[in-house]
Amino acid sequence: MRWLSQHHGGSKMVIEEDRVATFGEVDRASADLAKALLSSGVGKGSRIAFLFPNGIDFAKVFFAITRIGAIAIPVNTFYKAPELVWQLNHCDAQMLITIDRFLHNDYLARLDEGLVGLAGQGDEILLESTPYLRKVVVRTTGGQVPAWAEEIEAFTSLGASVSDSMLCAVESTVVPADQLCVLYTSGSSATPKGVVHSHGALLRRTASVGADFGIGPEDIVYNPSPFFWTGGLSNGLLSTVLNAGAVMTEERFDAPRTLDQLEKHRVTVAVGWPHFAASLRAVPDFSKRDLSALRGGILTPLLLGNELGDPGLTATGIGMTESVAQHTYGEKEPLPESLRGAYGRPAPGIEQMIVDVDTGLAVPDGQEGELCIRGYSVMQGYYKKEREETFRADGFFATGDLGVIRDGFYFFTGRRGDMVKTGGANVSPAEVRNAMLGIEGVQECFISGLPDPDKGEVVAAAVVVHPQADLTAETVRSELKAVLSSFKVPQVLKLMHPSDIPMLPTDKVDRRAIIGLLQQQAG
User: Among 48, 65, 474, 517, whose CB has the most other CB atoms within 10 angstroms?
Assistant: First the structure.
């Protein structure tokens, strides 16, 4: 932060619709808050949870915590009371710094609801349900601060007793091996896991991601992924600002307003789900908008009306919270047909190995098994899990992803337990998806198994069709039969318009809703 402030202090760092913060401003604000944290007893290894939407305050609080060696623990802004209390307890948070409300979410009310006995507490909290939590600091948007919390401006003023030289002395003790953060997985298929990353691993990896995208001081990046997840924190905030670019944020995606912001701030790199582009292009005056500054990001060719090419021959990279960002690099040029469906080669510093799911032994190239990864950017471990529970004896992390390595490229074939078992045969959802994406007019598809009394399961597919494409279920099945065995061809097939894809409030595809639509289709 000091280096960025010295060299790019007057440059934009975070754009929050009509608010802008420079590198110098974030440096100073985070330093002031860091001093207050020090004065209240926070030090290296202290676990500080914080709950803010994407924006300037998220950046200020994140850098305040981490610059003094405390551990930053972002909290999901979508959490209800039980989920919020669960994370505060699981991560042993000693302090929570939070906004009072965001959109329709009242976080103070949720804390009051979830933490039994909180209403009777003073500003030094002592509760059995969250035995380590001592203080809640609140940034208010106009409401009252309860007795058990402290307003952030009053709290920050406590740092006046800490000198700049003292702050520098604390900062000088922070080393790359220190824990930086605990990032919680989305918990879409299991209880969320707390993924521990170090300063060295997270910063080196995110800086390299931004450099690979060519991000520099002249760039403004739009990435709506929530910063409390790795996609937003690593591929959005950190990969941008560590390369001296600016990140543009918004309260929520709203096509006309988002388009205004892309145009107003001259965004150069636009990242997001492909359906965002369809919504933006549907804005009535879209053709009159000046988006000439755009040069990169997955949304850019879609917004500029350029052809994406065959999606099956586009290696986009794949990653997970446990690997900081993508553990494979995408390819800038289209793949040859022989590599259709590949997700790229290992990122620098990452080793990949495919092992037999039963024996754990490495398998030859071209044989399917579970992907294991090892390297500098792989997590330190899961919070509250012993290393032996998480890593193999050889140091590899078993990802739970099934795949194949061929010619140095990784092919994702599904998750352990996701295979569709139909009539005694195993069907890989990824194999069916890749074949489906090879059909002209198919933009995306979602493959699942549906229960069947005779076969155990049948293959089902929700297929997103380009609005101008002339596709029917019969033509789709006919083309699939030319490249897939008959038992792999979906028996249940639903064609969908891009605007009909059900989405979660997190802007992720609602796969449960899609399965519900497939069940309706199957009758």
Answer: 65
Rounded Cα gap, residues 138 and 159, in angstroms: 16
Three-class SS of 287-307: HHCCCCCCCECCHHHHHCCCC
Q: Could you read off the pLDDT of 465-497 as tens digits, one per residue?
A: 988 888 999 999 999 988 887 888 999 999 999
Burial (Cβ within 10 Å: 0-12, 13-18, ≥19) of residue 473: middle
Residue with tokens 């290296």: 44
Residue indicated by tokens 């059909």: 439
DSSP SS3 for 133:
coil
Q: What percent of the chain has pLDDT over 90?
A: 70
99-135 pLDDT, tens digit per residue, is: 999 998 999 999 999 999 999 998 899 999 999 999 9
> For residue 334, what pLDDT is reported?
87
- From residue 494, alpha-carbon distances to 448, 463, 522 in Å are 12, 6, 9
Q: Is the dihedral of CA 297, 303, 305, 311 positive or negative?
A: positive
SS (H, E, C) 489-511: CCCEEEEECHHHCCECCCCCECH
Q: What angle do CA 26, 62, 504 make, to 5 degrees?
A: 115
pLDDT of amino acid 166: 97
Sequence-distant contacts of 159-163: CB under 8 A, at least 24 apart: 159/32, 159/33, 159/34, 159/35, 159/36, 159/37, 159/38, 159/39, 160/35, 161/39, 162/35, 162/36, 162/38, 162/39
pLDDT at 314: 80
For residue 200, give Cα distances in angstroms to 34, 69, 108, 513.
Answer: 20, 12, 34, 39
Please tell me whether residue 380 adopts helix, strand or coil conformation: coil
Q: What is the 3-state secondary structure (H, E, C) of 229-278?
A: CHHHHHHHHHHHHCCCCEEEECCCCCHHHHHHHHHHCCCCEECCCHHHHH
Which percentage of the chain shows pLDDT scores above 70?
97
Exposed, middle or buried, 433 (CB in 10 Å: 0-12/13-18/19+)?
buried
